[in-house]
Amino acid sequence: MTVRKNQATLTTDEKRRFVAALLELKRSGRYDEFVTTHNAFILGDTDNGERTGHRSPSFLPWHRRFLLEFERALQSVDASVTLPYWDWTADRSVRSSLWGPDFLGGNGRARDGRVGDGPFSAASGDWPINVRVDGRTFLRRSLGSAVRELPTRAEVDSVLAMATYDMAPWNSASEGFRNHLEGWRGVNLHNRVHVWVGGQMATGVSPNDPVFWLHHAFIDKLWAEWQRRHPGSGYVPAAGTPNVVDLNEPMKPWNDVTPADLLDHTAHYTFDTDA
Amino acid sequence: MPELSRRRALTAAAALAATAGATSVVASGAAADANAAPAQDPTGHDHGHASPAPFDEVYKGRRIQGRPVAGGGHQHHGGGYAVFVDGAELHVMRNADGTWISVVSHYDPVPTPRAAARAAVDELQGAELVPFPAN
User: Fold this and answer.
1) 3-state secondary structure A74-91
2) Which of A38, A156, A175, B63 has its CA 20 to 30 A from that of A124?
3) Which residues of chain B have a Cβ shorter than 8 Å from any chain A Cβ?
4) Residue B76 pLDDT > 70, yes or no?
5) C-alpha angle with apex A59: A54 to A65, nearest 5 degrees?
6) What is the CATH number of domain A2-271?
7) How far apart are CA B40 and CA B43, in angstroms?
8) Does domain B55-124 have CATH number 3.30.1880.10?
9) CB contact under 8 A, A43 and B96
10) Is A263 near chain B, with CB under 8 Å?
């Protein structure tokens, strides 16, 4: 059974295997297919039109499935690997072991944002940025420069306290848990972390930075925590909503899975904290 | 990649054509945003917002332009508004509350399309934009 662990608790061997599996997916070309898919949805999801991956109720189940696909790809390389999560309320410094040279590598340099160490630095030769929106082919970061602080646990708790999953108009203007977690409203959790990391993570091709998966694995965990706090609250809308994925409606690009199929994460994995 | 070059050439040509029609706006510069008393959305769709005024300026050494576009096809999620950096189209999108984002700054809304163009120039640090729909 897949157990998703806090990245801060990984052993040296677990980090090594995770990195090696990422590099193999990159080498084989499969990694970049995930970046392409994400960017296509980023460009296509609009507040007044069809919206599936972002700015909509299906933001959470869509990314849950997207991460499952990615985790299965990693496991096809090394069956022992699972997606770790990054609790950015706890590991909120540039000096976190997350950014160590044995794991994701550190901040970009001031001049051009280029990440200079770790397995994903341009110098390693193993991590070309192929799916991109500009001419730069090297991984970039500017940790904590565009926004100074990552969200705090108190801010997370204020969002987890919201009992309604989502609300009309089911987009970036909505009140409710989903949009506050996504960050278009209120204290801003998910969006702010993308901005805090900077570089490709702040763009539509954000999965170019492997931290994308650790960030979204934590967002996914917060959804599970919210469900535990609000057992009487379910995914909405239930049916008949134009441009929006209802509870039992299939989701693109897979078309074989509905939000209802993805509400219970324990069918696919558990967290180290589930106990 | 001949296809890409052709696309870039077409985009640049479109930008030039737009410039010809926007000469008066060039002069007004920063006033354009303040003026945002804009034209009807030329797509005919009611997005709940009128389209912002065009702009055309050199920001940090790069030409940024924005204008309402006709057709508003699938790509123009700005609700019928297009933004260019040195002639290459920057994918922008308007949020329900009237704020804007672009593909190079997708999680950080700013008040106007000009602000999104300037944020893109800041983010690009001189790099060339890959014109969408290539991206």
Assistant:
1) HHHHCCCCCCCECCCCCC
2) A38
3) 45, 47-48, 75, 77, 79, 91, 93-97, 103-109, 123-125, 127-130, 132, 135
4) no
5) 120
6) 1.10.1280.10
7) 9
8) yes
9) no
10) no
Q: Closest approach of chain A CAs to the CA of B78, in angstroms?
A: 9
pLDDT in tens, A59-72: 999 999 999 999 99
Question: Are residues B83 and B53 in contact, defined by beta-carbon separation less than 8 angstroms?
Answer: no
- Long-range Cβ contacts of A106-113 (<8 Å, 24+ apart): A106/A141, A106/A143, A107/A141, A107/A142, A107/A143, A108/A139, A108/A140, A108/A141, A108/A142, A108/A143, A108/A198, A108/A199, A112/A136, A112/A140, A112/B125, A113/A140, A113/A141, A113/A142, A113/A198, A113/A199, A113/B125
CB contact under 8 A, B123 and A202: yes
Q: What does the alpha-carbon distance between residue A54 and residue A38 come to, in Å, rounded to a whole number?
A: 10
Q: Considering the entire predicted model, what is its pTM?
A: 0.88
Helix and strand counts by DSSP (H, E) for chain A: 7, 2
CA distance B47 to chain A (A): 7
ipTM computed for the complex: 0.95
Q: Give me A224's structure tokens.
A: 């599970």
